[in-house]
Fold this protein.
Amino acid sequence: ETFNQMSTALQEMKERAEDANPLTQLPGNHGIYYEVQKRIYERQKFVFFHVDIDRFKIFNDHYGLARGDDVIKKTAKILKEAIQEKGNPEDFLGHQGGDDFVILCSPQRAKGVAETVIQRFDELLNTFYRKEDLQRGYVLSEDRRSVDERGENLVKFPLMAISLAGITNSR
């Protein structure tokens, strides 16, 4: 019986490791699905946050993949710290991929977690951009869909922001 339990535990560990996002090491879609299902099955009250970095693709295209990866890693760190500081130990953070994350937390702590994420992301924003882009408040980048009367396709794109959309089963 002990051997079977160990075998099952090792299999679950292997599946979690294979599911982890390679950039952030956070659980991926299978882990997220498992956590949501578990909480529903156990009739837990929770808030499901979808977290998205607005205009990340524009940043990634303009500054390059390495800088984009840095934004993703730093965002994951911000999310982890916000959960540790404002959430509960059983709260969950997953990485769906790209610039999409999921937070599962208690309804009582959700507002504090969300406000901390937004504040920390906004504080870190100035480390992502060049000084001139920050001062302008936007990035000038090519957009093949928008060509002006002079034949130019430079467009003003606002700086990145972070959005959290939450839904709860508490009622």
Summary: DSSP finds six helices and six strands in the chain. The longest helix spans residues 65-86. The chain has a mean pLDDT of 90.
